[in-house]
Amino acid sequence: MAHILVIGASRGIGLETVKAALAAGHRVRAFARSASSVGVSAPELEQFVGDAKNAGDVAAALDGIDAVVQALGVSVTELLGPVRLFSDATNVLVPAMEKAGIRRLLAITGFGAGDSRDAISLFQRAPFELVFGRIYDDKDAQEMRIRRSELDWTLVRPGVLTSGAKTGRYRVLDEPSSWRGGLISRADVADFVVGHLEDAAYLRKAVVLVA
Fold first, then answer.
1. pLDDT tens digit string along 83-98?
2. Strands, E, within 116-185: which ranges?
3. From the centroid of its chain, how far is CA 191?
């Protein structure tokens, strides 16, 4: 079993990943500014309060870690201005992992990030850019920094997220010709992430997840 650092652990996919990793028997360090409010309790869980953009916090959180899950998110109010969280946090995390000798990184971005944006239909592209353009421009920078790294990374690009329960019935699209949009629950994204913490099936690849 591995010792996992989940960055962005207090909500969304990050919180679901914490739950799934604990259920699978891993030790988990849940990193977030509001980590103390994570509504999970387990002997193998450590709540670590920190800022993903702070190099000191990130370096301390990496101590003794085997693999990292980066599951950052922004609030609705943050959509109104420039978005730099994803790239700024990644510019801190990647060199910190390289310095610490930790290689495995699963970074959750989204369908529409990087080269998967070309797979969005022309009909959907204009509203996508209008609503999510700032976020995904920053996720593009996030992915580019990870791709330039020496890490054993996987870019996880879920479709439209839902709050449904884990089904285990989802598709992993790892070829650009197969990429498409669709729905998927946060719990199913977490299931994929935890299931691939310690294997090389999608090493240095980007995958799209849809139900």
1. 999 999 999 999 999 9
2. 152-158, 160-162, 171-173, 183-185
3. 12
Quick one: pLDDT at residue 80?
A: 67
**Backbone region of residue 107 per phi and psi (left: phi > 0; alpha: psi in -120 to 50; beta: other values):** beta
Give the end-to-end CA distance of the chain in Å, rounded to a whole number. Answer: 28
Which H or E run includes 144? Answer: helix 122-147
Are 143 and 172 in contact by the 8 Å Cβ rule? The answer is: no
Q: Say if CB 91 and CB 71 are below 8 A apart.
A: no
For the chain, residues with pLDDT lower than 50 are none
CA distances from 109 to 7, 41, 44, 60, 128 (A): 13, 27, 27, 24, 15
Sheet of strand 205-210: strand arrangement: 45-49, 27-32, 3-7, 67-70, 104-108, 152-158, 205-210, 171-173
Residue-wise pLDDT for 120-130, tens only, equals 877 777 777 77
Q: pTM for this one?
A: 0.94
Give the Cα separation of 22 and 45 in Å (integer).
7
